Structure prediction request, 570 residues.
Amino acid sequence: MLLFVIVSLAGSGCVSDTNSGHVDSESMKNVKLQIAGSTTVLPIAEECARIFMEKHPGSRVDVAGGGSSHGIKSVADGTVDIGDASRDIKDSEREAYPELVPHAVAKDGVAPVVHPSNRINALTMEELQQIYTGEITNWKDLGGSDAEIVVVSREEGSGTRDCFESKVTKPIGEEITQHAIIQDSNGKVRATVAGNEHSIGFLSLGYVNHEVKALTLNGVEPTVETVLSGEYAISRTLWMITKGEPDHAEEAFLDFVISEEGQRIVEEVHFIPLR
Amino acid sequence: MNQRTSERIIEVSLFLAALLAIVIVLLILLFLIKEGAPVLIKFGLRDFVLGMNWNPIAIVGEPSYGIFPMVVGSIYIAIGALILSIPFGVASAVFLIEIAPGWAQSVIRRGIELLVGIPSVVLGFVGLVLLVPLIRHTFGGCGFSILAGSIILAIMALPHIITISADAIANVPTSTREASLALGATRWQTIRHVILPSARSGIVAAVILGMGNSIGETMAVLMVTGNTPILPEPIYNVLDPVRTMTSNIVIEMNYAAPGDHQQALFATGIVLFLMVAILNAISHTIIRSKRVSTR
Prediction:
């Protein structure tokens, strides 16, 4: 059902017929691309597919979700042309499918955020781990006011949660505390943290604004620059993966995603462009 | 003969139309079972419904699928909503039918209709921005709570409880009313000892329908209850956050990978479906009970 909606959404781009006069527009006719995978990459893939189809009338790019693992598996066994992943290809996957070629399409950083009135401005990774595993439960243990910490997290399966978990709680082999308040979008996490002076949450960098205060982690401020330089710890690269070197159609689409226009879409959907 | 045939055709098509509703329900149920049953068989219905731990994407150890805290959360919030909405609802219904002058009746009825028209997302957002901070500042805790969910649901259940109770009260025969007054009972005594008992079955049905609706409601609730998949501590603490079954499905369905996780969400739907079906069955039995048929 969801897949059907996505496909029909992506397909709706076919209707508008704005031939931009691209050189390779003619050769893109009857091109059919299937894309599936990470829901984090989904908005980028959907929007790029829509614009791509407008630019190349007659082409058709179908985009579906399913998760990173699904994307990697699908591209490896040939069910789709491009697999989306919001994490690096695991060693086990590299072994099983050595022919996969990842292409970076965007970066993402996840920043811990608190209420602007919170005295705390910086945390170490260890402190962040202790907060999110439920070991530290009061701000006074971190030099703040004597108040219980309200931990806000995202739902199981969320890409933002996955990024946060894999960089914060996974290295010490623990789960995020069950006591965390769960909100199901970046927007709601932000509203929750903005509305509670004792809360802490995490946001994809594109959603951080004046309503909340992003904390520096191990002395590194989460910004576009520190994510791109790799200095900031909680970050990841979003990938589009092909089986072997991309063929003509795949290359055209990937080129579009990393083109200036494609990267503008990346920024619009709150991720960090590659440059 | 010709007329007979056409009548027959109309009868059959009406029957098919009626059948459609049942077929749709059955198809939905079949689909739910088809999608959710594998995980129920794999982990066992008992462990699924009574399991305490919900951790579908495990970092440490195996994933676990236990929805007991959510079953409790759904029931808590629905009961809380009823406790808040029944007194107001029944009182409004009594006022509406027995006391209010004609112009007040129409104003109140309009108001109730407006209340039904507020989208649940809007109520949820109001709850998130106003109610949650209010509860935090007044009672403590983090604000996201059973109480917040119950208040929002009470507001949503109120119009249904008022209209169904009002109908039940209006259905009490005028002769009964007049007999009571003729015996020298005051207006209040009539309401308290004659009208409310006569309308009891209708009011109970209103309450149970309200409960069914409350358990099934999602959008507004998930914005204000905090959605933690654990039991409140202590168990009676209405200021603790909880997750309801409906919230569990909505929150995680977007990203759930096909397989156990997704199936577990469908299985949550099966449990919810059964609970609401049982409540509906109870309310229908009450509506059909003798008290109603004799009035």
